[in-house]
Specification:
The chain contains no helices and seven strands. With 98 residues, it is mainly beta. The strands form two sheets. Strands 1, 2, 5, 6 and 7 form a five-stranded antiparallel β-sheet that branches. A two-stranded antiparallel ribbon has the order 3-4. It is rod-shaped and about 90 Å long.
Length: 98
């Protein structure tokens, strides 16, 4: 019986921003958009590999048959903030997914 335990933990984040000045009939407001996001994930997995080896030689070697099973759990979370602004007004949105 071969067994393997695998644990991983992953984290990443990033940010992007843009600003643009637009012209509307002599009015020149600036539009700002920014987005920040982060990802956190982890997994705990067990790989089970029971194998049976036959006693009678086959073609000069030992015949072995095995089955592999993977068991465990994983979870991931994504968090982000979207900020938009038009002139002096700003709006933020905080979505979160698990």
């Amino acid at each position: 019986m071969g067994t393997v335990y695998y644990h991983t933990s992953v984290a990443a984040s990033g940010a992007v921003a843009a600003a643009r000045e637009i012209q509307i009939r002599g009015f020149s407001p600036t539009v700002n958009v920014s987005f920040n996001a982060s990802l956190n994930a982890q997994a705990d997995l067990v790989l089970l590999n029971p194998t049976y080896t036959f006693g009678t030689p086959v073609l000069g070697g030992q015949l072995a048959v095995g089955v592999i099973g993977l068991f465990g759990w994983s979870a991931a979370t994504i968090d982000g903030t979207l900020t938009t602004g038009f002139g002096a007004r700003a709006v933020q949105h905080h979505p979160s997914r698990t």
